Amino acid sequence: MDPFAAPSGATELAEPRPTSGTPAGVSYETLVERHAETEAKYRNLVEQLPCVVYLAEYGPDGEWLYVSPQIEQILGYTQRDWLEHPHPQGSFTHPDDLPLVTAEEERSMASGGPFELEYRIRRADGTWVWVHDEATAVRDEDGRPICLQGLMFDITRLRAEQERLAALDRLKDTLLHTLSHDLKAPLTAIVVAASTLERLDKELDEEMRNHLLRTVVERSKAMNALLTDLLDLDRLDSGIMAPRRYPLELSELMRSLLAKTAVAGAELVDVEGRDCRANVDPPKVERIVENLIANAATHTPAGSRIKIRCWRDGDAAVIAVEDQGQGVPAELRDKVFEAFYRGPDAVRTPGSGMGLSLVARLAEMHGGRAWVQDREGGGASFRVLLPDASV
Predict the structure, then answer these.
(1) Which pLDDT does position 27 carry in this prediction?
(2) Which run of H or of E encompasses 225?
(3) Which of helix, strand or coil describes residue 105?
(4) pLDDT tier at 112 (50, 70, 90 boundaries)?
(5) Are strands 277-280 and 306-313 parallel, antiparallel or unpaired?
(6) 225, 206, 195: which is closest to 355 by C-alpha?
(7) Are 305 and 270 in contact (CB under 8 A)?
(8) Is 303:323 a contact under the CB 8 Å cutoff?
(9) Residue 102's pLDDT is what?
(10) Domains in the chain, ordered, with CATH?
(11) 61: CB partners within 8 A, 6+ apart
């Protein structure tokens, strides 16, 4: 069936010309010419539309009777390849979406109503394209739906933009929660301590006064660290932060960091490894190690030891921070490096959920990566690969 086909017998000029139903003074040849012109204009219009126009039988195994040339531009198949395939719908539709397409076609065939759905189709190069498919039922002489005539639009970019906006919306909600939770608590403590000092300064003994002052200082540092993390994430996402590399001994950097850091759990850390020189940005590597130590201390039993190791791997250095906790389930090993993700026990877990995300971003800034795997003997081994670069 060709949606542009001329009426049966229209080109058989040798047959008797019909006389009834033709306008007065208009020859049969003129009618045929007008019909051919109309058909050509319609075909030209259809084939210039920025979408695929088609005529296809129902079902995943149905035959496609016509498809416009845009099929090659959108999906990479020629008209001939597509039409000669015995069942393109069933073969090229994404396996997860095919049941939805089949159900919608069955509904359309049963009711005679329109078909409308968004789903994925495999391009000729193997990539997946999101399409918006709208069709109406073509009926036989008895009014029964026999096939679909429709339009197929490429909405891949639109879907990607929708997913990006949805991700930004989720990020906004998470950020608001983080700010309201992780900034409100220290700010409340600062206000309480400062107001107590203001009202009762003369009545407070030295120990209480020092305690309140320490509260103000420590909570202020915590708020400053949180805001610094937020700014760094923004800079890394914007691509305006680049490593300032210097050659150094990583094991010495880590020992020096532990000697001066106040990060929770630092006193339980053992450093292993020597002769691990690397060309890196020292302050950024310190942030990586600090965040990994803090993460290990948060998710491991109190008093358990944390081990830091480093070694060379070809033209890169590897840092591993290993704990004796419960480990990270396989399905969460990528998710734990997402910004603001705090795990299934987030209600009981302190922190903003930015530490591991910063680790991954700072590793990527060096041209490397961060990942987590099982630690031999139990627990988790968080690892960072830092490739060398010229000084």
Answers:
(1) 66
(2) helix 206-238
(3) helix
(4) confident
(5) unpaired
(6) 225
(7) yes
(8) no
(9) 94
(10) 49-154 (3.30.450.20), 160-238 (1.10.287.130), 246-387 (3.30.565.10)
(11) 86, 87, 89, 90
